[in-house]
């Protein structure tokens, strides 16, 4: 048993130990890895290949070019143009016409030949990825929106007609674009982009090749000798020979008989390659 | 997504084994509630007459493609996830993800409701349409993303295309069911899916 004298002799040491400074609290330090390069203050040129994925009555595929200036790492202004060399009625539309004699109203089947949009891009999410445990690549998830104009047309003759498809011009329409996608940085100059883009355009259709329904009916009846047509309407714009002209005018007349209006959503998946400079 | 004449709403139960970090294989069982879409109903409501109204001569017609309804499917499948990464959507919180491609094969249970061929003979407007149920081989291709909420739970979104041998009737007498010849084609049904997975 420990004697009281020894206990008392230990007390001053214990008191001394208590006045020592307490250990410093643990500090959490967040380390943010410096990006190897930045896109801020740089220009980006992208070539896309868009393909329509909501192809109920129409199908579209084409090429798109976009120029973007990155104001900050996560904000850019962009201007883009798109051209759809493939802008035709879908297989379902042609099948319904052939088999049950039905066709969508003109506004639902309006084709997008191309568009030009000016807008903004926001890239709020950054990340990294690797492929089969190989090189680590940076990525950004972005959203974009823009406004502009779209060039439209209407298909007048189906693909299995003599002479193939023919089209009528329906002019320019206001358009908007809304998209979201992923940008994968291959290095400081090149990126791969995958994007879903909704091209929205007004599709009020009342004239084809500058001709209204009454004009088209007159051309269907009289061909190139049609008279009393509206200013800007010409029978020759419907084809190169009398049969083509009358056939295309008949199709235009049937589609214009009941003027239709709608807002078309052309939803496209597009993959592209960018060059940052 | 591509079947405008029919609607599909359903679910898919998938059980797979991961032999390593980037591949898994297993079986899938799918079931769908299907119906003729609003567009399909509209097509049916505006059909041309089954016979010439003046002469009474029967008209001939073709069935419309792309109206097959996949009621269910049982498939063996494999998946490869070559891309692994992480994103920081909310401040410091990281979300790990995988991008994958998948392929599979199995059998599917289908129903085909004709858009324009009647089940009953005659020249009157159609009020019941020819239908058929059958089982066919099915193949699938797909791609998707898996986002890990924790080590065991993940959310998945994916796009799949189901391929199956399909048939359509051509040159049928619209007043007589069961007439016409059969044409084969490759049916394609694309679906967008969202789901959750548990690893154990």
Main traits of this protein?
heterodimer, A: 277 residues, alpha+beta, Porin, 8-stranded antiparallel barrel, B: 200 residues, mainly beta, two-stranded antiparallel ribbon, 1 helix
Any chance you could write out the topology, listing elements then pairs?
The complex is a heterodimer of chains A (277) and B (200).
Chain A (H helix, E strand, L loop, with lengths): L3 H15 L24 E10 L5 E15 L2 E15 L1 H10 L10 E21 L4 E22 L8 E20 L4 E13 L10 H10 L19 H15 L6 E14 L1
Antiparallel strand pairs in A: 1-2, 1-8, 2-3, 3-4, 4-5, 5-6, 6-7, 7-8
Chain B lengths: L5 E15 L2 E14 L1 H8 L14 E2 L6 E23 L2 E26 L10 E20 L4 E18 L1 E2 L7 E18 L2
Antiparallel strand pairs in B: 1-2, 2-4, 3-8, 4-5, 5-6, 6-7, 7-9
3D architecture notes:
- With 277 residues, chain A is of the alpha+beta class.
- Chain A has 2 domains: 36-205 and 264-277, Porin; 207-258, no CATH class.
- Helices cover 18% and strands 47% of the residues of chain A.
- Chain A contains 4 helices and 8 strands.
- Chain A has helices at 4-18, 91-100, 213-222, 242-256; strands at 43-52, 58-72, 75-89, 111-131, 136-157, 166-185, 190-202, 263-276.
- In chain A, strands 1-2-3-4-5-6-7-8 form an 8-stranded antiparallel barrel.
- In chain A, strand 4 and strand 5 form a beta hairpin.
- In chain A, helix 3 (213-222) runs antiparallel to helix 4.
- The radius of gyration of chain A is 33 Å and the shape is elongated.
- The relative contact order of chain A is 0.16.
- The model of chain A has no long low-confidence stretch (mean pLDDT 84).
- With 200 residues, chain B is mainly β.
- Chain B is 4% helix and 69% strand.
- Chain B is built from 1 helix and 9 strands, in the order E-E-H-E-E-E-E-E-E-E.
- Chain B has one helix spanning 38-45; strands at 6-20, 23-36, 60-61, 68-90, 93-118, 129-148, 153-170, 172-173, 181-198.
- In chain B, the strands form 2 sheets. Chain B has a 7-stranded antiparallel sheet.
- In chain B, a hairpin with a 2-residue loop joins strand 4 and strand 5.
- The longest helix of chain B has 8 residues, at 38-45.
- The two termini of chain B are 32 Å apart.
- The mean pLDDT of chain B is 90.
- Chain A binds chain B through residues 30, 53-56, 91-92, 95-96, 98-102, 124-133, 139, 141, and chain B through 1-2, 4-5, 22, 39, 43, 46-48, 61-66, 82-89, 92, 97, 99, 115-116.
